Amino acid sequence: MNKEWWRNAIVYQIYPRSFKDSNGDGIGDIPGIIEKLDYLKSLGVDCLWLSPVYASPNCDNGYDISDYKAIHPDFGTMEDFDLLVKEAKDRGIKIVMDLVLNHTSDEHEWFRKALDGDKKYENYYFFREKKNNWGSFFGGSAWDKVPAEDKYYLHLFSKKQPDLNWSNPDVYNEFVDIMRFWLDKGVAGFRCDVVNVIYKNSLEKGKRKIALTGIEHYLSTEGNHDILRRLRKDVLDKYDCFTVGETVFVDPQTANLLMGENRKELNMVFGFEHMECDCRKIKWFRRAYNPERLIRALDKWQVGCEWPANYLENHDQPRSVSRFGDEENCRKESAKMLCVLNLSLRGTPYIYEGEEIGMTNGDFKKLAEIKDVESHNVYDILKKLPLRKSTKDRILYKCTRDNARTPMQWDNSATAGFTSGMPWLKINGNHEWINVEDDEKSENGVIAFYREMIAYRKSSEALQFGDYKRIPAAKGVYAFYRTAGDSRVMVVMNMNGYNEEMPKIDGKTIDGKVVITNYGRDFVEELGELKPYEAMVLEV
Ligand code: TEU
Ligand code: CA
To answer: Which of 150, 235, 298, 453 could serve as a FRET partner for 350 with CA atoms 20 to 30 Å apart?
Structure first.
């Protein structure tokens, strides 16, 4: 394995709308990010991945792009962006852009021209006289009718996100150009949105499934692999950059085909299997969280994936403390345990804004408080099902992507230091006690723990590049060695909350130095009694 810089980089994901508003319009923006660069630098992160900041009608908060070479005025100007790249660089921080290859906005010039009957652009998308039975990721059919015409277009996501036709070489060339445009500005790579569904083999009828009928015709197709290889050779290899693919329905083996070193496609991918540990097939049908299932999924990727992109949160997932921890009784402890987890696994770690202060799920009380297009689509479907209203509401509030999109909590003032105006999305009431300023002041702050863990990871060859070996342990206890030559650490995490039985690592006596701990113990003889969410890193 080569030791390229991005393997030991620590990436921090910014959801720009919700990070920091600089001009009081209630929407986070690029000057706001610049204001916070010193804070980000102080955490020790190396790279910022920005969720989309391009021109967009915002039906899917920027994942519906109407101009790939323009900055949305909500976020600022191209000058602001260039300044961000420069200011970040001055602090040793790189910028990674989000790139949406699968679809554009229906307000993109290409789609408009296509609707105007321009043959060239019609072939950028999929128009058919009849729709097939494919389903959309956001619920319902993947086809919608073109207004006032007898034809349909394909959209795997919202109806304002028409899918691009990647078998058309013109589409390929457009993206070569777009990628060069940003790389020439000095960005360090791309997070590529749903990048393993971009190439459709055919538009044949799909096999009936509960959801996503049709997926067999577009999931990780050979054509898709071919495009990734060509983009790598024609563009990416000419720059000092990396790509992380957001890839759906992959396991470690199919992931390796998309990012393995000798495949020359992507550099790493986000898998979803650990995010499914508390769902039943579809994320809207939750089952109780059981740490064993999470551990099993993580272990599977640690063992099987060449180089995982590790994450516990992003802008599509509920907050990890609310999900895998205990926000009521052990918020700080569980946030710190999850920090140890994310930063000690093999692979490149990604931290999502607010994770470093243990932010929790949004406290939404009514549908109108939720802005996410997916939530509204799904709620419309739920409404038709024979379920109690309280059940539908529970599903909505637990699963809505807005849980992770509430504004960043900087301080305990009325608007959490996020804006001086009306925030675009409801600020969580708990910003009164969960916020950066108070966390920094408190004795056992989560941010301080992040700093410590990040700094330790950077000093540890074992954590950055070591191999991984799981240690058998009691249920809900995740323990492993990371070893690189002489450097070896043992990581132990009790992922259980309050438990009657004391979890134990079978027959393990510890002979090592505790270097990171979330309970302040600095000496362990035997791992007999782990406290709820206790986590530690030992040099052994
Ligand atoms: O998400 C892709 C994706 O697979 C989502 O449907 C994911 O499964 C879902 O959000 C979980 O609820 C990416 C982006 O991360 C997301 O924000 C976009 O909405 C989507 O692509 C379309 O561009
Ligand atoms: Ca703003």
So the answer is: 235
Domains of the chain and CATH, by start: 5-103+169-451 (3.20.20.80), 109-154 (3.90.400.10), 463-539 (2.60.40.1180)
What are the residues facing 97 on neighbouring strands? 50, 190
Distance 404 CA to ligand 1 centre (A): 13
Distance CA 19, CA 34 (A): 11
Q: What is the pLDDT of residues 92-103, one digit of tens each?
A: 999 999 999 999
Give SS3 for 377. Answer: helix
**Phi, psi dihedral angles at 537 (to 5 degrees):** -115, 130
Does ligand 1 have an atom closer than 6 angstroms to the CB of 15? no
Q: Is 246 one of the catalytic residues?
A: yes
Given ligand 1 and candidates 198, 247, 279, 316, which is best to mutate, with the most ligand atoms within 8 Å of its CB?
A: 316
Is this model's pTM higher than 0.70 or not? yes
DSSP-H helix ranges across 400-518: 436-441, 446-459, 461-465
Task: State what percent of residues in the chain have pLDDT above 90.
Answer: 90
How far is the C-alpha of 186 from the C-alpha of 164, rounded, in Å?
Answer: 27
CA distances (Å), 476 to each of 38, 323, 343, 500, 525, in order? 37, 15, 18, 13, 20
* Residue 213 to residue 235: CA distance in whole angstroms: 34
pLDDT tens digit sequence for 168-221: 999 999 999 999 999 999 999 999 999 999 999 999 999 987 779 999 999 999
In angstroms, what CA-CA distances link 173 with 54, 176, 179? Answer: 19, 5, 10
Question: What distances in angstroms separate CA 342 from CA 313, 336, 348, 457, 479, one per listed residue?
Answer: 10, 10, 9, 11, 13
For the question of residue 500 being annotated catalytic, the response is no
CA–CA gap between residue 118 and residue 337 (Å, rounded): 56
Q: Is the dihedral of CA 131, 132, 134, 140 positive or negative?
A: positive
| DSSP bridge pairs for 189 | 242
Q: Both tokens of residue 75? A: 């976020």
Position in ligand 1 atom list of the atom nearest CA 138: 6
Q: What separation in Å is there between the alpha carbon of 22 and the centre of ligand 2?
A: 5
pLDDT reported for residue 237: 98
Calculate the dihedral angle through the C-alpha atoms of 466, 467, 472, 478, rounding to the nearest 10 degrees: 60
Phi-psi region of 347 (alpha: psi -120 to 50; beta: other; left: phi over 0): left
- Is the distance from CB of 220 to CB of 257 less than 8 angstroms? yes
Ligand nearest to the CA of 219: 1
Q: At what angle do helices 252-259 and 291-304 cross, to 10 degrees?
A: 40
- State if residue 160 touches ligand 1 by the CB under 6 angstroms criterion: no
The 10 Å CB-count burial string (b at 16+, else e) for 162-190 is: bbbbbebeebbebbeebbeebbeeebbbb
Res. 157 pLDDT band, cuts 50 70 90: very high
Q: From CA 372, how far away is CA 400, in angstroms rounded?
A: 7
Tokens standing for residue 238: 């000419």
Give the β-pairing of 94-100 and 189-193.
parallel
